[in-house]
Give the backbone structure.
Amino acid sequence: MAEDSDFTYGRHLRLDRILQAQEPVSQSPDEMLFIIQHQTSELWFKLVLAEIDAARAGLCAGDLRGAGKALRRVARVLDHLVASWDVLRSLDPLDFMSFRGDLGEASGFQSVQYRLVEYALGNRVLSLRKPHEADPAALERLDAELGRASLYQAALRQVEARLGCTLPDAAFAQDRPYIRQEAVLAGWLRIYREADAFPELFDLAEQLIETEDRFRCWRFNHVTTVERVIGAKIGTGGTSGVSYLRRMLDVTFFPELWELRTQL
């Protein structure tokens, strides 16, 4: 860092931009909470995506230790995001209704970064590109993610390499949601049953489970927060609201890692 007396805390963090980025569209004082809640969530999603990329890079390089370090950070960020719903739940239904009508069609369903997180973890539902069709830059990012292996697929390549096995091509399809594979289950079962022989793969599997566990908690808190604040109303972006969010609770990123617990 060059010596620069003007390089201050505020300049480093671009606080002039960040603290002027809250522009309520209503007269309700509660809208500020809503804006800051979602802006900070987007910043944390940005870090989650960066750490998932770091984990994938580590896996591709055979650096399972580095990948695990990145995934541990993802889990801690998700812990923070889970807890952040407690702040939004301080809005009661009347608070939210005081500005909801001013939001128009704006909805968290339109979050590109959230969709990128889902895609990176393996839930690659192509129809969910639709809310972003009017944004070429967003589609470019989503399509770039669809053009690469998911986090789980990168992990499965390490399973292949270290077990000396070949997993089915279907496990590596990039343009669709991941589908459970019997051969993948068999590979993970071997790793767990011979954990002393494959300690790095065992630790990787447990860190993947921790990541999905934390993400499930985030989804669950999302559902309960929405239900607490707006009940069963249609979401601002036209989704079915709580019923849609509840269906998402059943989505599993790493199915074999959950199933093996029953079979051990």
In short: DSSP finds twelve helices and no strands in the chain. The mean pLDDT is 94. The CA atoms of residues 32 and 135 lie 26 Å apart.
